[in-house]
Specification:
The complex is a heterodimer of chains A (about 525) and B (about 350).
Chain A lengths: L1 H16 L10 E6 L14 H10 L4 E2 L9 E2 L2 E6 L5 E6 L13 H13 L11 E8 L2 E6 L6 H4 L10 H6 L8 H4 L3 H4 L9 E7 L3 E6 L12 E6 L3 H10 L4 E5 L4 H5 L4 E7 L3 E6 L3 H4 L5 H10 L2 H8 L28 H11 L5 E8 L2 E2 L2 E2 H13 L3 E8 L1 H9 L5 E6 L17 H5 L9 H12 L3 H17 L3 E5 L2 E7 L7 E2 L3 E2 L7
Parallel strand pairs in A: 1-10, 1-11, 14-17
Antiparallel strand pairs in A: 2-3, 4-5, 5-7, 6-7, 8-9, 9-10, 11-20, 12-20, 13-18, 13-19, 15-16, 21-22
Chain B lengths: L2 H29 L4 H5 L2 H5 L1 H10 L6 H13 L13 H36 L4 H15 L2 H15 L23 H7 L3 H38 L2 H8 L4 H29 L3 H6 L5 H10 L3 H29 L1 H4 L2
Helix pairs in contact in B: 1-15, 6-7, 6-10, 6-12, 7-10, 8-10, 9-10, 10-12, 11-12, 12-15, 14-15
Classes of the chains: A alpha+beta (about 525), B mainly alpha (about 350).
Chain lengths: ~525, ~350
């Protein structure tokens, strides 16, 4: 027995003692991330984590600059024209683009990719709803025809789902863009371990829940990136990411929470980047009196907006958080400046409540999904709302719900007074029209054309078809101001989003859509 | 009764047990007031009734409950565990991929806890009420009471970050590719492929997680070994052995521990079974994607086929573990063999 133990001890020590890492000539970047994607098929892409990969491996016709989402710049398309009626977009492709296998990019690849994405009917397919058809006028010209004018179409085209794939290569692997692609396309399997893109990197391997490895694309048509290999490692726990970053085993931690900032800031080897995210945390007040009770009343809705202490709510969320003036997040074209936000005014709130017929306040349930959304603890936010409203006589009963249960109720319009979040589906202010009557969110608040004020309906219809950026900004401004005084919502804050990386890393830039462009990093 | 008859009876009993588990898992999953469509479709897709209908049809969610269950059982008998709603991959493939990670971690954990637990337990019993006994009991108390996530994080903070004794999270370093797949156990597969540096790396990555995971069971095993040994040490045959002039060490180990092992084996078996059913917290912190993480993700996204598959797998693991423990009794205790 003793001999066995000694042997075991010696074996363990010997094995550990032999350790040593062979020198690598390659330049490798390691990213720590909580993996939220399970497919590398860009036409099905819908998760923010997956964007890191798709943005490095594929290109879209147009794109955003590395650090903002309010400007659209050329990418695969070097120029484009929009018809007078706003229904036809003609894109002129660059003539020097090649795929990772050497094939040249042609308009046919764009047509294939867009049709495939639409016909796969997966999560992002709704982005193609306004596209009637896409055709190749010639080898380098793509003509996109819409079903109605859509000012947001260019922003939508930047989404990963509109990545351009090598049609020939994907067809060889069972890919198809036919009407029945949802049932007949079999290329997803191949796309899990390979890629058919024009980006600076290619997919080398994908071990689900373990790591994704990208390697340099030797046939890249643009400026070659610094790193030869990028490893995206799945580290589901933020504390683990922090320890791995401090130890130098990863170069970037993607899921930093506010609590960790002080510790990172004190560390000279680590840089931190914080800003407000595009997520909007807000209160829903159901317009249907049977569901919302007192909060279906316009005056009560206005009173609640005046009763909240926005500064303290922001503080709760941690560094980087900010309060939007209305239901369009800061950072979007046309968003009101945060200085125009409603101030807290308890007297005004009480007066409005009295006017509405509730001089002594009322009691109401606040339903919310009891979970932590990247550092924002919904339970704590709900408690703060409860405390703020108590000051004007509204007694709030907290009703925490399991996430899926709450989500179901919310989507079915069965919640009277609830706390939710909204992430933009695409980076154009048009997405926030969903909060208006008969929009996706409007319906959940039972706010429809039947019970809405004609003024807001008019504004909504105008902004949906307007293409001129200046006029759009004006219309959105009016809509936001209207929502400040009326309507079933109270915007609470945009939580902060944080990243930490080794200080010897250069070129870090944050963009709401793909977060970090790994192809621009160097050491 | 004869061994083969006993074995046959136990294996046959597994069948109604599995049917029962599948029924319970199915009923519970379906009585949750939430819908997999909400969990698996994005905001926009879920707002489109056509897409929702297509989704429900594809996954058989529009069928009445008993039809869904019977379809599931029918496929199961053909070896088809279904397809995951979340990842679109066959459940059987996914379980085969996640299970080895858990087996590796659980086995390493149980080895640590058995070695530590039995040694501590014997020491504690032989030197009862001496200082060493109190030290050992205190340490095992920490093992049992410290929350596993706390142990894991403190372990990483000190042993990984501060002192650099163990590598970081994950089963291998990011730069080390996995060995060619044979069993899915990185240690075994790298040995089979002759990849020594990969083997070394895999063992290094196992050290801390197995220590953390084994902490709780080592505490349990220490206590049960101690009390079982104390019981045995007071028996008459111990005095007989000593009076025969045998060395004290032989008396304690060969005559004492050997006879004290029965209850210890039970606890080891149950602990191993419980470690094999996955330790979500440990697996999350160490980025060790095993059955625990799989079960958690399946439950979170209401992935019914995955929930059913993983529930049945865990049930089978427990049943088999129980069977092995019972067979071990048979081996360890000659009195049972004489029937």
């Amino acid at each position: 027995m003793r001999r066995f133990l000694v042997l075991l001890l010696a074996l363990t020590l010997g094995v550990v003692g032999m350790g040593g890492v062979t020198a690598q000539e390659e330049r490798v970047l390691v990213v720590g991330l909580s993996e939220d994607y399970h497919s590398l098929d860009p036409s099905r892409a819908y998760e923010p984590g997956g964007s890191l990969i798709h943005h490095s491996v594929y290109d879209t016709l147009v794109t955003f600059p590395s650090d903002s989402v309010s400007e659209i710049i050329p990418n695969l398309a070097e120029s484009w024209e929009i018809s007078e009626d706003g229904l036809v977009y003609t894109f002129h492709l660059r003539d020097d683009v090649t795929f990772s296998n050497g094939d040249p990019l042609t308009a046919e690849d764009v047509v294939f990719s867009f049709n495939r994405m639409k016909n796969l009917k997966d999560n992002p397919s709704f982005l193609a709803d306004t596209i009637a058809s896409v055709e190749a006028a010639d080898d380098l010209t793509v003509v996109l025809t819409l079903t109605q004018p859509d000012a947001a179409i260019l922003a939508k085209l930047i989404f990963d789902a509109f990545s351009v794939l090598n049609a020939d290569q994907v067809r060889e692997q069972g890919g198809t863009d036919a009407e029945d692609a949802a049932e007949t396309d079999t290329a997803e399997e191949w796309l899990m371990n390979n890629s058919a893109g024009t980006g600076p990197y290619m997919v080398e391997s994908y071990e689900p829940t373990v790591q994704t490895v990208l390697v340099r694309n030797p046939n890249y048509w643009g400026e070659p990136p610094y790193f030869d290999r990028i490893i995206i490692q799945n580290l589901p726990e933020t504390s683990t990411q922090k320890l791995a970053l401090e130890a130098g085993d990863i170069d970037i931690a993607m899921d930093v929470i506010a609590d960790q900032l002080d510790s990172f800031e004190a560390n000279p080897d680590i840089e931190v980047f914080s800003t407000q995210s595009d997520t909007l945390i807000w209160l829903l007040m159901n317009m249907d009196p049977e569901v919302g009770g007192p909060v279906s009343n316009t005056l009560v809705q206005r009173a609640i907006r005046y009763a909240l202490n926005y500064e303290e709510l922001r503080f709760l969320s941690g560094a980087g958080a900010n309060t939007p003036a209305s239901m369009v997040p800061i950072g979007f074209a046309g968003a009101l400046d945060p200085s125009e936000a409603l101030p807290q005014d308890l007297d005004q709130a009480r007066a409005l409540l009295a006017e509405a017929g509730y001089p002594d306040g009322f009691t109401i349930d606040l339903e919310y999904p009891d979970f932590n959304y990247i550092g924002t603890e919904f339970g704590i936010v709900a408690q703060k709302v409860q405390a703020d409203l108590a000051q004007v006589g509204i007694t709030v009963n907290l009703v925490p719900q399991e996430f899926q249960v709450s989500l179901d109720l919310y989507r079915n319009g069965e919640q009277g007074f609830s706390l939710w979040l909204w992430n933009p589906d695409y980076y154009d202010t048009l997405d926030y029209v969903e909060f208006l009557p008969s929009g996706v969110v409007g319906n959940r608040a039972n706010w429809t054309d039947e019970n809405a004020d004609p003024a807001i309906l008019e504004l909504r219809d105008a902004v949906k078809t307007e293409l001129d950026p200046a006029v759009r900004a004006e219309l959105f401004g009016e809509i936001q101001r209207w929502l400040q005084e009326n309507g079933p919502y109270a915007p609470l804050f945009q939580p902060g989003v944080h990243f930490a990386y080794r200080s010897d890393l250069q070129g870090f830039a944050y963009n709401g859509q793909w977060r970090v462009d790994l192809t621009l990093l160097s050491r | 009764m004869a061994l083969h008859k006993y074995l046959a009876r136990r294996l046959l009993l597994m069948i109604p047990l599995l049917v029962g588990i599948s029924l319970v898992a199915f009923l519970i999953s379906n009585s949750i007031p939430a819908d997999p469509t909400a969990a698996n479709l994005g905001e926009r897709a879920a707002a489109d009734p056509e897409i929702v209908a297509a989704f429900r049809a594809k996954w058989g969610l529009d069928q009445p409950l008993h039809i869904q269950y019977l379809t599931y059982i029918r496929n199961l008998l053909r070896g088809d565990l279904g397809t995951s709603i979340r990842s679109h991959r066959p459940i059987a493939d996914e379980l085969a991929r996640f299970l080895p990670a858990t087996i590796e971690l659980a086995t390493a954990g149980i080895v640590v806890s058995v070695v530590v637990g039995v040694i501590f337990g014997v020491i504690s019993a032989v030197w009862r009420n001496k200082p060493i006994d109190f030290i050992v009991r205190f340490v095992s108390l920490i093992g049992v009471s410290a929350p596993v996530f706390w142990l894991a994080l403190i372990g990483l903070l000190l042993l990984y970050l501060r002192w650099g004794i163990v590598p970081g999270p994950g089963r291998l370093d990011a730069r080390v590719p996995a060995p060619p797949h044979v069993t899915g156990l990185y240690t075994v597969d790298s040995l089979l492929a002759g990849e020594w540096s990969t083997f070394r790396n895999a063992v290094e990555h196992l050290l801390l997680p197995s220590l953390v995971l084994g902490a709780y069971s080592s505490g349990l095993i220490t206590r049960i070994t101690r009390s079982s040994m104390l019981e045995v040490l007071s028996r008459e045959y111990m005095t007989t052995a000593r009076s025969k002039g045998l060395k004290e060490r032989t008396v304690i180990l060969r005559h004492g521990l050997r006879n004290a092992l029965m209850p210890v084996v039970t606890i080891i078996g149950l602990s191993y079974g419980s470690l094999l059913s996955g330790a979500v917290l440990t697996e999350t912190i160490f980025a060790w994607e095993g059955i625990g993480r799989y079960a958690y993700n399946a439950a979170r996204t209401l992935d019914f086929p995955a929930i059913m598959g993983v529930s049945m797998l865990i049930a089978i693991v427990f049943v088999v573990m129980n069977l092995i423990v019972d067979l071990l009794y048979y081996v360890l205790d000659p009195r049972l063999r004489q029937e």
